[in-house]
Structures are given as C-alpha cells and as structure tokens.
Amino acid sequence: MKNVLIVSSSLRGGSNSEILAFEAEKGAIDAGNNVEFLSLKGKDIKFCIGCLACQKTGKCVQKDDMAEMIAKVQNADVLIFATPIYYYEMSGQLKTFLDRCNPLYGQDNKFKDVYLITSSYDDAKNASDIAANGLGGWIACFEQSRLAGVLAGGGLNEPKDATANEDLLQKAYELGKNV
Ligand SMILES: Cc1cc2nc3c(=O)[nH]c(=O)nc-3n(C[C@H](O)[C@H](O)[C@H](O)COP(=O)(O)O)c2cc1C
C-alpha cells in the first residue's frame, strides 16, 4: 500500500484534467492504496519570493495554505499532478505550487514515482511535452524521484469533454491502478 497524493490544479468547474485525475484516484483506490485528492481550487497560494529562507529553516516565510499542502507532499510515496495545458506549459498555479515546495529541497523526501496528467485542446502527440519537461526539471532536483508516466489528454477543450472520452478515462484509471 502506498500513500498517493493527487494534486489537481485546474480552477474551472467541469475540469477535464480533474475528471481524468478522479479516474486515476479510482484506480489507485481499487489497487488498495491510501489516496488523497487535493484540488488547488480556492487555495491561498502566494508566489515564491525566492528569499531562500526555507533552505535554512525548512519553512516558508509566507503564511498561506502551502504549509499544510507541503506536509502532504512530504507524506506521499507517489505524486500525481493534473494540469490543463496553458500555452503548451503546465498551469501557472501548478508551477507556483511546485516552486513553493522549495522547503522540501535537500530534505529526506520519500516520494519516488511522479505522474503527470494533462488536458489540452490540441491532440497532437507532443502537446504535453513542454509541460512534462517542466515537471521533469522539478523532479531532477529531487534525486529519489522520477517521472514515472504521463497521460496526455488531447482533444479536450470545453468543460467535461473528458466524460465522453472512454479511452482517456480508461487510461487514467489504469495509471492510478498501476502506481
Ligand atoms: C490560458 C489558456 C491557454 C491555453 N493554451 C492552450 C494551448 O497552448 N494548447 C492547447 O491545446 N490548449 C490550450 N488551452 C485549452 C485548455 O488546455 C483546454 O481547454 C483544457 O481542456 C483545459 O483543462 P481543464 O478543463 O482541466 O481546465 C488553453 C486554455 C487557456 C484558458
């Protein structure tokens, strides 16, 4: 049994990436894991100001919802990040979340396998490559971790488009099942 943390970063109702993330959650639960689903909707997350105080104290100087969420990242064996594709990158809110995890840099973290779920209008094979690369940069800074899989949800634009895409729903479920 693994501790699986799913971080869903889209802020809109009927989010496609979130729908896929919910399927991954089902798969991970069915496989007997301990799963927590975290949506960034409504969360107070300030930008990283780059002071690097966290590298000395292990804590961020900012007072918002990140401290609680960083503790969840710290407790996870597996991370699944879900994001809409914005200008061929991950969402700004996910990038800010990753930046704000800087108190974990250089710490004894246990998360190993990191997955990415995306949704984009573009269904080209490479529509998520830049976002995956960006996440790869974060992962590279945590030696124990690796990018274990990417589910690129192409051809999804309007809210809830993902509900009609059986293939992607199944792939998301399988991703969760096999973490
Ligand atoms: C600011 C913005 C930028 C976007 N940029 C892209 C893009 O570069 N390529 C693309 O295929 N879709 C782009 N889209 C469309 C979204 O990726 C698409 O609607 C996706 O399904 C949204 O995911 P969500 O429902 O999880 O929020 C963009 C949408 C917004 C709002």
Helix/strand/pairing class, anyone? Answer: alpha/beta
Give the ligands present.
flavin mononucleotide
Largest sheet: 5 strands, parallel
Tell me how many strands there are: 5
**Oligomer description:** single chain
- How is the CATH topology named? Rossmann fold
* Tally of discrete structural domains: 1
List unreliable stretches of 5+ residues.
none
The total of helices stands at 6
Average pLDDT works out at 98
Highest CATH level, the class: Alpha Beta
Radius of gyration: 15 Å
Any idea what the CATH architecture is?
A: 3-Layer(aba) Sandwich
Give the helix proportion (percent range): 25-40%
Describe the structure.
Helix content is 35%, strand content 19%. With 179 residues, the chain is of the alpha/beta class. The chain has one domain: Flavodoxin domain (Rossmann fold, 3-Layer(aba) Sandwich). Helix 1 links the parallel strand 1 and strand 2. The longest helix is centred in the first third of the chain and has 15 residues. Flavin mononucleotide (FMN) binds next to helix 1.
Q: Which key terms come to mind for this protein?
A:
179 residues, alpha/beta, Rossmann fold, five-stranded parallel beta sheet, 19% strand, binds flavin mononucleotide
Brief synopsis:
The protein is an alpha/beta fold and 179 residues long. It contains six helices and five strands, in the order E-H-E-H-H-E-H-E-H-E-H.
Summarize the helices and strands and which ones pair or pack.
Layout: E1 3-8, H1 16-30, E2 34-39, H2 54-57, H3 66-75, E3 78-84, H4 92-100, E4 113-119, H5 129-140, E5 146-153, H6 166-177
Parallel strand pairs: 1-2, 1-3, 3-4, 4-5
This protein binds flavin mononucleotide.
